[in-house]
Amino acid sequence: MKLFIATFLLILLGLLNTKAQPFSSQAEWENYFKNKLDNLDPIEGIWSLSSNIKIFDNSNTLINSEFHEHLMTMVVYENSNEFFTYSLYTSEPVEIKFIKTAASNEYIIETFDDMSFTSSIKTTAILTNDMLINYSYIDKNKNNSFKLKEGSYIDFDNELLKIFPEEISNKNQSSSGTGFAISSNGIIATNYHVIEGARSIQVRGVNFNFDKYFNAKVLVFDKNNDLALIKIDDDNFKSLGTIPYTIKTDLEGAGMNIFVLGYPLRATMGDEIKLTNGIISSKTGFQGNTTLYQISAPVQPGNSGGPLFDKYANLIGIINAKHSGAENVSYAVKSRYLLSLIELLPNPPKLQSINLLTNKSLTDQVELVKKYVYIIETK
Fold it and tell me: Contact at 8 Å (CB) between 209 and 238?
């Protein structure tokens, strides 16, 4: 099976299109991007491709899985308002094309099956912090080419890490994440990476009104733990109301039922708040990080900064990442670090001491909590 995957990867790297390329060497591409740095789309640049390839039989049973790190160095560049790809591994174009969507960090990625450009697979590619692209797709057309049994298929989970340029001008870019209220006077918690480098911050969804936004400012942040506190700073703002949940700082154990609220993939999933649930998988996060929980609830870009609740609707964490190389593995910063950040405020707010949601069903908990979870938009 390893020979099969190795053979497939060589063919994958050899899939070429006929689009004319302006350059061939990495040095030429780097010089090209340097000269148009202020006008680059966030997706343009030089990327390292890694791929987790899984093969399933016709009963959806996993036959084989292999992770290939730094499989290829490739260029993504704009040509006539479309984004094409070029392999520095083969010095040839690659049959992958990116298409912009209404969201600045979401693209449609189209992978062509052959050189005829008539058969393709489309999926959503997510750009995180201008430096990481995640996308996955299932290909059911390869079983004949690679002598797989009828009904079997290949699942690709790919990651592109930008290696050049390290940063680009973001003066015209916008992005969004999630935040949640911690006090009635407009203080909201989110991730640091949601508001990092922002020239303006806007909060949407207050009292479920997504057409109206409030300006906000950063009060304090903790870059190491990826946390930030912002406050609505708008003459039209009055109050967020009584916060119904408490911040719990005691460590939760593996197996605790949890749920997550947020606004992921808004370009394709809309502005309605999304619920996912699962359990705490581990009391430590990526590579044993003790500041994080590992959870099984699926999260996507846009969930960043959203609240993590235990089954009693106590706030126990803040969503900040997902594991691109594994299924249903996400991470949340433990709430004790949020409490430490709140204590750094010049005038810390009085936090809710009584949980008003403990004895309610999950449906009722979500219905009451979602009023206090917001879209955070930045430019």
Answer: no
